[in-house]
Amino acid sequence: MEKNLLDLTGLEHSNYLNKAIHEIVDYAIVLLDCDGNILEWNKGAENIKGYRSSEIIGQNFRLFYQQEDREAFKPEGLLLQALEEGRVQVEGWRVRKDKSLFWASVTITSFFDDNGILIGYIKVTRDLSEKKKAENQIEKLVQKLTHQNAQLLNFAHITSHNLRAPVSNINSLLAIYENAESDEEREELFNNFKIVASHLSNTLNELVDALLIREDTEKEREWVDFQAVYSKTTELLSQQIKELGVTLNSDFSAVKECFYPVSYMDSIFLNLISNAIKFSSPERAPIISVKTCLTDKGVSLIVQDNGLGINLERNKHKMFGLHKTFHRVKDSKGIGLFMTKSQIEAMGGSIHVESTENVGSTFTVVFNLKKE
Amino acid sequence: MEAKTVICVIDDDKMYQFVVRKTLDLVKKPKTLLIFSDGEEALDFIKSKLHSSVELPDIIFLDINMPIMDGWDFLEEFLKINGKPDKKITIYMVSSSVDPVDMQKAKTYSEVSGYIVKPIGPTRMTEIIDAIESTK
């Protein structure tokens, strides 16, 4: 059976409205006096803010603001705005009874008696935590997709160029072969075909490897000890280290280990340290330092050398490209950094370099170890 | 006697260098071929021959993608050379791929006469040499 509200008087309406407001659980609807002290508190307020009516009535709504907001007189400012403009609507962090924070949408409306004198305020608050969390996730996803898109474009660009070059050579050699006038010439050309075919094959393998790395984001992780990887690497490179008289410094006291695929870590250490050795300056004794540290971005690995350095102004955008080399050093194929960057990024991390020509370079790897 | 056209190829791809040599063998014109594997070497050569008109290139086929100093880097440095070289040097940007970005960039340099996709066959090569010689 239903009761028809149209049959009731205005006063009874008000009573029912009052009761109804009290029962709403999704919105905190609070009555404040002229100074912001709490007079009425509905179920939604209990739900969202965590206080029962009995313990909150009489207290000031400043309680729900973070310390920095209170010190800046933000609550008072909002009341003033509501007084002057009729209402104010904001979003911001608020504090629950258990001291946890939530992202709130707040509307404060001032109301007056018939003589235009302020009686108090009605404050309606909605908890937007879920919405904000979802928004943050979307933003992160968009960033990730944008980045991946850029990577794919870059990859497509690299592929198209690096594959076209040998193919173009094969076509040219074919044309020359057809015009060849002696067996010796044909033999020479045939040998060249073999060379180019192997270029093509190598490039394809490099690109496929890089592609596999990018796809393999589910790679198995385990606890990897930095000192152990470092020792393994320096042992592998011991001959060059001795020959060039390299001084090695290491410090893993800040972060001793991390949860990462071992093979990638091995590869990262090997690539960065062997590069530092390879590009050392003939003018001074090479000094390479390797250390880990913890920053707000996460665990970082820093490899610093005093070698040839790189002209970043000229080469910054080429730094981690395929086959990009900056020094006329033997055996400098330029795939190392490309691979290393692919591996690091596949695991959600990043790598960047700072360098000064003829002073040295510092490579910083940030590992993303947080589970998303 | 017809003057020799000095053709300069700046390209790090050794196989392509071989291809260019063979291609030019088929071009029956008096010519000298200079090959450099990177921009820096080419730049040093040009700087040393600024006033030796006979030895300077008439044409430069400039590969875009090279290690150490790529085609664009070379171009920038070349344009900065103090003292104009004694002869007009025609520059073509060369690449094995058709990259719209690079093609557009080539247009922004008035000193660049065009963008060529490798390989350059003997016929095209002959046409280019003829064009250069006729403007001399």
How are the elements arranged and paired?
The complex is a heterodimer of chains A (372) and B (136).
Chain A: H1 10-23, E1 28-33, E2 38-41, H2 43-49, H3 53-56, H4 67-71, H5 74-85, E3 87-95, E4 101-112, E5 118-127, H6 129-178, H7 183-215, E6 222-225, H8 226-236, H9 238-244, E7 247-251, E8 257-260, H10 262-278, E9 287-295, E10 298-305, H11 312-315, H12 336-346, E11 350-356, E12 360-367
Parallel strand pairs in A: 7-9
Antiparallel strand pairs in A: 1-2, 1-5, 3-4, 4-5, 6-8, 9-10, 10-12, 11-12
Helix pairs in contact in A: 6-7, 7-12, 8-10, 10-12
Chain B: E1 5-10, H1 14-25, E2 31-36, H2 39-48, E3 59-63, H3 71-79, E4 90-95, H4 100-107, E5 112-117, H5 122-135
Parallel strand pairs in B: 1-2, 1-3, 3-4, 4-5
Helix pairs in contact in B: 2-3
Summarize the structure.
The complex is a heterodimer of chains A (about 375) and B (about 140). By secondary structure, chain A is of the alpha+beta class.
Protein architecture, described:
The complex is a heterodimer of chains A (372) and B (136). The longest helix of chain A has 50 residues, at 129-178. In chain A, 47% of the residues lie in helices and 23% in strands. The mean pLDDT of chain A is 87. Chain A has helices at residues 10-23, 43-49, 53-56, 67-71, 74-85, 129-178, 183-215, 226-236, 238-244, 262-278, 312-315, 336-346; strands spanning 28-33, 38-41, 87-95, 101-112, 118-127, 222-225, 247-251, 257-260, 287-295, 298-305, 350-356, 360-367. Chain A is elongated, with a radius of gyration of 34 Å. Chain B is an alpha/beta fold and 136 residues long. Chain B is 39% helix and 21% strand. Chain B has five helices and five strands. Chain B has helices spanning 14-25, 39-48, 71-79, 100-107, 122-135, and strands spanning 5-10, 31-36, 59-63, 90-95, 112-117. In chain B, α2 packs parallel to α3 (71-79). The two termini of chain B are 15 Å apart. The mean pLDDT of chain B is 88. Chain A binds chain B through residues 157, 160-161, 164-169, 171-173, 175-176, 179, 192, 195-196, 199, 314, 318, 323-328, 332, 334, and chain B through 13, 15-16, 18-19, 22-23, 26, 38, 65, 67-70, 73, 95-97, 99, 118-119, 121.
